[in-house]
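Q: For a teaching handout, I want to show students what a protein-ligand complex looks like in token form. Below are the inputs, and the small molecule is [4Cu:2S] cluster. Please produce the holo structure.
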Amino acid sequence: MNTPLARSLWIPIAVALALTGGCSEVASSGGDGSITDLMKARNLSEADVSAALKTYTPTGRHDEYITFASGGHGGNLIVIGVPSMRILKYVGVFTPEPWQGYGYGDQTDSLMVQGMRDGRQIKWGDMHHPALSETNAEYDGKYIFVNDKANPRVAVIDLRDFITTQIVSTELIECDHGATMVTPNTEYVIESSQYPAPLGGRYAPIEKWNEEYRGAVIFWKFDRDKGKIVPDQSFAIELPPYMQDLADAGRLDSDGWVFINSFNTERAYGGNLEGKDPLEKGASQNDMDYLHMIDWRKAEKVVAAGKTKTIVGMRVIALDTAIAEGLLYFVPEPKSPHGIDVTPDGKEMVVGGKLDTHCTVYNFAMMKKLIDAKEFASKDPYGVPILDFKKSIRGQCEIGLGPLHTQFDNQGFAYTSVFIDTQIAKWSLADLKVVDKIDVHYNVGHLVTAEGDTASPDGKYLIAMNKWSIDRFNKVGPLLPQNFQLIDLNGSKMQLLYDMPLPLGEPHYAQMIKADKLNPIEMYTPIGTNPLTHAKDPAATTADTARIERKDDGVHVYMSAIRSHFKPDIIRVKEGDRVHLHITNVEQAFDATHGFCINSHNVNLSLEPGKHCNVTFVADRPGVFPYYCTEFCSALHLEMAGYLLVEPK
Ligand code: CUK
Ligand code: CUA
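A: Here is the structure, written as tokens, with [4Cu:2S] cluster included.
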């Protein structure tokens, strides 16, 4: 988001920065001196030292929290320790990730195929919102889901081994944004659309917007035992052609409902080269847009009763049906809002005003009462009942310019990112008053607090996820990193602790979970486990059964890897042979990972202890191709190599 208003407000800040020189440098270390000498030599204040002490994590110590941040344009998930802000892993999801061999072997290629849109391979993703799986509205540390806004897709990551195990996509919609969020027991993973289009990938002239263009919310059914989304048991609800934005699932009191904020209820579609208002102007006319309330438990019953139509394989509850069955209601929300966050107790919903200076606090009991009494203020042009604004809200909190996203702590406070003021505001949910503000640098989007969107947030830490970093780091050309700023929530005043540059995409949102809720495996057992099935692969090999077999479909190489050799270390094939490599790392020592690559064939695998990988390619060029281990695994690592000999026909 980057409104003209935001840009104009930036000018005074930019000027101030230019006048002051923009930054101060920290001198190099003061040698063996005392703390005071060090502080002097490095130009550090007491506040700096206190911040350092709160984040410094000596070697061998582990972090209290783990943050899963979206990798934005990078399409991959970032795993970060808090409070140290050390990056622990990038999980390959929508984009090939060479170190993990993600996208360079049969198993992970099959995931890339699952992620195709309309038969086309997509080589990137625009990841926005990770969602940890929940049990009773608490993170359970089992799975995490992520979305790709650009090529609407949802992926499942298994937190046993932090790898992607599934990607699903439907051609029903052309862009998502209210994704991913989960219902309180991970019954469903939610994916709602952003930019309306004719459902199912059809063409319709844009002038037919009101009649033919639609939004939709998809409820992807999640089978927890199998760890898989089940598309056949999933369904969607058609929505009017507004721009649906963020979504959040109700919990406890509001369990069974999903809330989606929206903008562009004006139904503007641009045309600035065709004599019409630009899209953003047309979309900012109304004082109110609509918070969508969706009764998903009732929707399940409507689906079970067969009151759906099927569009590109997805069961869809038509808009008329959704209205007639009482699944969909609107509540006015000011004004082109951004962000909807359900309070920990599930009783209220906080919507960030974006173009309005308030956060509006909706009360579920008040809204439910109006719905039960069928007391509606009006209807939208499609017949969706609209509740009265004043009768639906408990109140509003005056936040500042550009309130966006909100998270919570365990003391009854809410924390809202304020984009244009570029601050975090801490405010009391009980009396709707701001109690503290802190500057961030700069243009904060989302923020995340420890377990801050569950039924029992921890407080403690907050990360401001800033879009711009301007003068915070050394200059690296015109494209600057994003800036994650760690903020301490333990005192009565928020304290800025640490700046962490993130140079691979715009992360948007994150989840922060207590580290001890995660229970990842140390290696794959039994030896020969295929990570996609978490079972022994039929082609798994031991050192004793390593062999080469010529079959009808090509040459099968059953290979073992252990410090410090591959067996076999010579593979002889004929030009044009299809080669199937089946490689098992037979190690059972923690961290004894081998890599496997063959030059010029785009083959690159990561073989963690016990893991089995399959890779298929055609040896279409005669020649001599060394293969080798790409992880410095042992003193004889460089000797862990072999030859693929492709004999000319
Ligand atoms: S959106 Cu990016 S700052 Cu996609 Cu959640 Cu608000
Ligand atoms: Cu195995 Cu290097």
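A: Two things your students might notice: The chain has three domains: 4-55, 65-271+284-517, 529-647. Residues 529-647 form a domain with the Immunoglobulin-like fold (CATH 2.60.40.420).
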